[in-house]
Amino acid sequence: MFQPCSGFGVKMKEGIKIDWLTALSKRKSSLVQFSDCTRNRRVSTLGTNAGATPLPFQNWHRFKEAYTPELIGRAVQESTIPVRHLVDAFGGSGTSALSAQFLGIASTSIEVNPFLADVIRAKITYYESDALIHDLGKVVRHVKRTSASVRRFSACPATFIEPGINGRYLFHAAIAECLASIQTAIETLKVEAHRRFFRVLLGGILVAVSNVRISGKGRRYRQGWQNRKIDPVEVLDLFVQSALQAIVEVHAHMNRPRTEATVLTSDARIAINEVEPADLIVFSPPYPNSFDYTDVYNLELWMLGYLGSPQNNHALRFSTLSSHVQIKRNFAPMPDGSKSLSQSVKRLHERRDALWSPWIPEMIGGYFADMSRVLTGCAHRLNDGGQIWMVVGNSQYAGVVVAVDQILIELAPRWNLRFIVKKPFRSMRVSAQQGGKEQLAETLVILAKD
Ligand SMILES: C[S@@+](CC[C@H](N)C(=O)[O-])C[C@H]1O[C@@H](n2cnc3c(N)ncnc32)[C@H](O)[C@@H]1O
């Protein structure tokens, strides 16, 4: 049997003491404002590089590609029509949905990754904090009383659990056993929203207790991971700390406006056509930089049971935007109407031998074909006078720049959308994989439907 901490006498790590009792006893009566969600901070950019200032709900799961809530505040403020319904076609960590909620606006988010879709749902759900505390106690007691087997993870790829393959694995067996215990305990809870809340928070600690770290380049083994000893007790402590912190945040913001928020676990290329008419659409799609989000969230997807077979994994990857070449797929042909796109694809074909994957020209064509499907749907579902705010990033392969911002602007008339403005946010370093040090732009592009 697993022997962790006793009840709530959880041994907190130095410096991470959570005064949850005091926090819970201070019920706020006033309505929570949007500024409570941004903590009235000053940000140097509205893009994805605003720094790591921890905002409420945002650190439930580390998601470094998130843009700032302030971007949503600005888009709503500058809209030329009243915003009652906001749509985000690429929900990610839920910045749009959460910000809309704080602003008292109904929202719909589309997110293809089922774990991330649950992260969004977990954040926008209204909970009773006392009931969450009660259920956290139940989880801890269940973990103390019962043991669970790592067989729970038998569907995961063989590299996941010790002994792994060729002596390499992502989780030590003792850690995996503890994770299995926590999950089994979570599953005993009666309220589905609570099960999701705790599952998402467990997802938030998986990388920390694994033998790998995640960076812009994907998943890498930690240095000296074989000798890195994590006591299984620490896994439960970490989970409890993170759950308590989240409950404190839930409690502090429980009086935020009550709005309708819909999350669709779907492919935006299809689902965008099914959303209710929108007054404002804000999103940041995956950038065509070969970064596969399915890969990056592999740990959470498999360990938490969102994926149960290689076929599931394959299907999920096929549903993602054509922004990577990790799977062999028939990329849709590039749309007509952009000189910059035709030139970039032509130059990529010419430089095919210098590319690290010969499929990059087709991927770029397919990326804009996919974006075209999404934007056709957006234009169809957007109310007259509404705007689309997109945070996009340019890419570069073998010295050929793919100016995503410019290409989308050139394609806008094809979707009967009018270009309003383009504002650069920051520069991104070209990844080593893309072979250079030149800076690439991240840009806000605003289009409107007349
Ligand atoms: C740049 S992130 C969005 C970040 C988000 N703006 C935030 O603040 O958290 C892009 C998201 O698009 C999702 N995605 C990729 N392909 C998709 C598709 N076909 N349909 C819907 N979502 C997709 C990815 O899983 C990823 O979460």
Low-confidence stretches are: 1-29, 431-437
Q: Taking strands numbered 1, 2, ... along the chain, how are they ordered across the largest sheet?
A: 5-2-1-6-7-11-10
Identify the CATH class of the largest domain. Alpha Beta
Supply the number of structural domains. Answer: 2
How does the overall form come out from the CA principal axes? globular
Q: Order of helices and strands, N to C?
A: HHHEHEHHHHEEHEHEHHHHHEEEHEE
Count the strands? 11
- Biggest sheet layout: 7 strands, mixed
The number of distinct helices, counting runs of at least 4 residues, comes to 16
What is the structural class? alpha/beta
CATH homologous superfamily heading of the largest domain: Vaccinia Virus protein VP39
Supply Rg: 23 Å
Which architecture of the largest domain would the CATH scheme give at its second level? 3-Layer(aba) Sandwich
Find the CATH topology of the largest domain: Rossmann fold
Strand content: 5-15%
- Mean pLDDT across the residues is 88
